[in-house]
Amino acid sequence: MILRDSENSGTFKDVWVLAEFAGGKVHKVTYELLGAAKKLSDKLLRKKSRVVCLVLGEGAGTKAEKFFHYCADVVITVDDSSLKTFNDTVYASVISRLVKKYKPEILISGATSRGRSIMPRVAVLVETGLTADCTGLNIEEGTGLLLQTRPAYGGNIIATIKCEHHRPQMSTVRQGVFKAPVPDNSGTGEVIEEIVLEAEKKTRISVIEESFGEDKGINLSDADIIVTGGRGVKGPKGFDMIAELAQALKGAVGASRAAVDSGWISYTHQVGQTGRTVQPKIYIACGVSGQIQHLTGMQSSGFIIAINKDAEAPIMKLADVAVVGDLFEVIPEIIKLLKSG
Amino acid sequence: MKIVVCVKQVPGTTNVSIDPETKRLIREGVEIVMNPFDAYALEEGVLLCEKHGGEVIALSMGPKHAELTLREALAYGADRVILLNDRALGGSDTFATSYTLSQAIRKIGDVDLVICGKQAIDGDTAQVGPGIAAHLGWPQAAYVSGLIKSDDSGLTVERMHEAGNDTCVIKLPAVLTVLKDINTPRMPALKRRLSSGKAEIPVWSASFIKADTAKTGLNGSPTRVVTTRKPAARDKHTIVLNGNAAGSASKLVKILRSRIKL
User: Fold this and answer.
1) Number of CB pairs < 8 Å for A and B?
2) 8-state DSSP, B213
3) Which of these, A103, A203, B105, B236, has the minimum number of CB atoms within 10 Å of its CB?
4) How many domains in chain B?
């Protein structure tokens, strides 16, 4: 929606967070964003800006309460069987209608694959801008505009983006950027119940099957620790050892492109330019040489450990700790030590 | 099937630098390639046309030298290509880009399917595919990792998300964005490579596709980049452990325990 000169931008005021669910459970990025929304809302020039959580899904009506414990002042629920599976078309139609009706100043969602499917659709339907995969949000002093910071070129450039004349200002935000607030179990607020219109239910896409849970434990984007195997792991058997180490650390298993292309492990695990970008607290690269395409996907990790025979491999230069040695000797020793407590 | 595949020219490396004065990317001396994900989008288009007949049209919006990327698309199997090039299109954000591409798709006419790569490796937004779908009012499936079936009822595709995957049936016309899991692009035959070098590249303007210039280019872009910078350099101090396996492992576990609860 374009702000006209005649229109006081004060018409738009609240900060909205789109809640996400995975397999019926609230995705933790939702809580992180509610915390962020609270901070943004406090900084907005116009007072009375509220934190609104938008909850769509079958059974959404029963899930409102919890969000009040995480800074939400208002929860809008849309509880309908047409929202049982992830149908981008229905979700986007409903959200854009509600955005036009209530006029939020800011609308954010997690930069998950689902958030990144729905939000661009919503942005077009309400005619506003959207900034992808943000790693920082703030309110500009003086203007009250949302400053959206995001990495581009695989993290080699950090850009700050504004959306001056369109509302709402929309972003998808990377998981783990903001801290989830400590829940306040006494928190309460207003629940607004909305519905899905019949016309919105008519779509040309239907989800016929859904499956959750990956083949090898915790998923990459949720993990605080990722143990990645590369060409040096030598085969599927080597990945059993990588998985054992990941399990001992309660972490997830990653893989380089070379390992995935060799068929040793599925693409879901691939980290890098043509796989996933990850940002865990600790990243352990085992037998990964560290081609630029791989580094692109993991160089923002908090602490990087590399285990490699080749002391000169690029990954060893990037690492905080470089272990020069045979991973087939070092990793079993690490596992032994971790297991012995 | 009439299939449009959107392709983008990107720098061959993401290791780019910024001109300290203009704050713009230094493009000189940077090799330009076709966005890696777009090769998978093209291959999927070619595979579908091999099965059902039809044509694959590679579409790109960009400067004149995006021609090179379109020649590459011809080599990979596109039947024809179109370059959208107009001063009115420069500086587009994802809203303006998806609007412009959707106008070109309308102009092409009777398109059954649009396929895009998951994202371009320069902007990394992944927003243009869904944006095109929204502008056209078509359904979309993003992050598609597999095409299971294609018949009169539409396409059955598998989508990947962080916690698993799902399968959906999508009726045409529709937009897909694909992951590299979906296929293995073929190597272009020498003959195609040679002929693509000589091919005439049609260039379409904003007025030719009836684009409303209030929605294109920098002026039509709701978002604006206000600053760019290089990320803070990592602390370069690397602890090297190069003793025997047991010794290194014990030192490493100590470091791990000092950083996290295990």
Assistant:
1) 269
2) G
3) B236
4) 1
